[in-house]
Here is the input.
Amino acid sequence: MDINRRTVIRSATGVAALAALGVAEGTAGTAFAGTSAASGSSSASTSSAYSLEFDSTAWSYDATNDVYYQIGKVYVANPAATDYENLSIYVPGAYLTATANSDGTTYTAKVNPKGTVGAYSGRTAPIVIPVNTPGYAAQKPATSYSYSSVSQYLAAGHIYVWPGMRGKDSSTSTRNDAAPWGVTDLKAAIRFLRYNRSVLPGSTDDIVLFGMSGGGAQDTVAGTSGDSTLYFPYLRSLGAAMEDAQGRPLSDAVAGVMAWCPITNLQEANLSYEWNMGQFASTGTRASGTWTSAYSTDLAKAWPKYLNRLGLRDEQGRRLKLTESSSGIHLAGSYYDHLIKVITTSLNNFLSDNTFPYTITTQGGPPGSGQTGTSTTYQTVADYIAYLNTESTWVSYDATSNTVTVSGLEGFVNSQKNANKPVGAFDGYSRGQGENSVFAMGLNAPSHFVPLSRDVIKVNEATYATYSDWDSGYGASAYDSDFAKKDSVGKDMAWRADAYNPLYFLSPAFAGYRRSQVARHWRIRTGIMQGDTANTTEINLQLALQNYGIRDVDFATVWAKAHTQAERTGDATTNFISWVESVVKK
Here is the structure.
């Protein structure tokens, strides 16, 4: 698994498991004063509070399971938040040769390149990093050791690195942890690993990220923005490792990304949500006679113009566009046909993967909540198709081939993918959506961040003002005010939002195109029923990656699944481990 990058080192569920590893907000473990390091040097000043050198004399050992581990290593020289900016590392015992220290509890260890676990050795083992940040929340670092939560990864020969990362919910009265600090922390941890590559086992050319929802979004951002200079001011402010001992640049690019239901592409998400789903809804904020209903329509109408500007192409090189339709908003064109094809493939895969009678259980709460919704058992495929066509006939079934044809988007959305977010689903008009806090300007200071939404409001503000539910605080000037504010390193909202937009790095429509090192291996899974984001979110990500030239994009929408670690068959952790083995160098 080679990383294609410009600035390289020139020398040569798991998601849910975090909670069981002893996560608690607290003080990081002992660090080492000074700035010198045997394996590298940082850009931090001589007043750095922490060394970037990994202490090979401080390993702990789980003899029962043959695991070496360290917990609480600060990964930047000048941390803004030591309670988050530290990592833990878990290593199969075969990859290290160790001797007990005189204290009777710790070990001094060096890499054993000949030690093997399965297909991997102490030098070739992949390094897997969980990104468990639902809703772009913080990922708290481990404070204690638990084997059970990492056992599957270690048994497969992986090295498991768990970094703490700040997020929208970790800001304090004196510190703003909103974007792009979460991915900045992740990048700093990756740089720390490469800085210490000579004393750590595993291949830093084979770093793979995995996450779900906001975690899938942030590992997607990290996977598309490798070595982007947009992050350099933030990394340098923390004293992240920027160079090795010879002054050669270190990289924060990764080799692979596993993303389940990534809530990403936020710059376009207000528009795509209304086009994909909102235009078929008529209750709540989309009820007739409200300004938000008019706003929904205008956002949906703005989506085709933006989408067509992206210049996306399918696998045959055909340009994908939306065109006007006789009914609905731009429900025609090659992009529309491609979307219907994705939906059809998802349902056909479901019929191929499963047998009937089949019981479908809806999701009753957020991922990890343990809540389930209602369960319904369908005796035959025909029974299930009849259920899908309850309100309108949009699925045709051929019993001979056991395949279906989907006739249109409206029937699918009304049956399987209702809009469950209000208009302004991501950048809320009153700054009330969770993503407004992702781009906050401080504690309890959510901010607007989407120019596309601002532009729609600006053009139509006089019309919106005629509605009784309009408030002048929803106007374009509120967006302009937020966009002009600068963060602690002097960057405005445009800079921050670009840093968190995968398409900024993948699409020629943006200035960041081909100015980063994009991961070469991707596995994307999404539950097609989720109302959390539009179908177009993951579809555009897949298309943009393929158009960029990424050949290994394993993409699937999973029928009958919502916002979860959706898999067509099997379980998420086992499938992830198998995928990693299929793409890394042995």
In short: The longest helix spans residues 291-310.
